[in-house]
Amino acid sequence: MSRIVFLNGSFLPIEEAKVPFMDRGFMFGDGVYEGIGVLDGQLIDNEAHLERLERSLAEVRIRNPYSRTEWTSLQEEIVRRNGMTEGFIYFQVTRGVAERDFFFPENAEPTVAMFTQAKAIADAPAARTGIAVVTVPDQRWARRDIKSINLLAQVLAKQAAKEAGAQEAWLVEDGFVTEGGSSSGFIVTKKGSIVVRPLSNAILPGITRKSLLRLSEEARIPLEERRFTVEEAYDAAEAFLTSASNFVLPIVTIDGRSIGDGKPGPVTKRLRELYLSMARVPAMAAE
Length: 287
Ligand code: PDD
What we know:
nine-stranded mixed beta sheet, D-amino Acid Aminotransferase, Chain A, domain 2, D-amino Acid Aminotransferase, Chain A, domain 1, alpha+beta, binds N-(5'-phosphopyridoxyl)-D-alanine, 15 strands, 8 helices
C-alpha cells in the first residue's frame, strides 16, 4: 500500500502529490508547520498544537485555511488511511504559489501539505539507553517562537551533532542553552528540581514542554523556570529533552561528559512514565 498524504484538499498516494514550482514554501521558506505525536491511534495534545499553529499563522500573516474541527478530521483521516497507530503527523501551510516576489501575493491560496511517519515512540530504544547531545552556537533568527519551516540553522546544528556521534544538538546563546535543534531542553539539579528556560522569542513554546510542566506540578516535583548555562548542564544530576515525536527522552552525555552517573535518571524516568500514562488516557476512555 502506498503512503497516503494530504495536499490542498485531497488525500492521494505520495507519488502523485506534487507542489507547484513557484510555491513560496519552496522558494522562500514562507510557511509554518506543526508536528503531533500519535499513540494508540490517538492524537496527543492536539488542541494545543492547533492553537500554536493558529498563532504561528497569525504572526506571519498567512490565512488559516481550516477550523480546528476541520484540521482534526483531516488528521484523523490521514492516520486512518495509513493505518498508523504510533508515530508522527507533520503538516505545513505556506503562503501559496505566485511569481517570485518578496511582497505578499494578492490572490494566492495557502498550500496545505500533511503526511504521517510511523515510529515507535513509547518503546523507543533511546528511551532506555538515553542519548548523547553536543552543544553548538544558536544561529537562528530572532522569532524562534514561530514554528517556521525555515530550518536551515537546525539542519546544520543537528548534522554537526550527528557527525560528533550525538543524536541532538543543544543550541547555545550567550553561554545559556536555548533549546534543542528540534526539542525543548531540561536539566535536573542535584537537589531534584527541574530547570527549564522560560518562554520568550528565543525558543519555541514546546507543547510537550507545556504538558510536562503541568505533570511535574501535579506530581509536586520542584520546578525552576530560568535560563541555565552549559556548565550547569554538565554538572546536573540529569538532563532530558521533550518533543512531540519523542515525548520525554533522557540525555546521558553532553559534549562527551557523562551527566549524573551516565544513565537515565529517576526524575526523567518518572516524567516519561507520567507523560505516557497521560497520553494513554484518551485511548482507554474511548474503549
Ligand atoms: N520539533 N524546539 C524546537 C526548535 C522544535 O523544533 C521542537 C519540535 C520543540 C518541541 O516542541 P513540541 O513539544 O511542541 O514538539 C522545541 C518537531 C518535533 C520537529 O520539528 O520535528
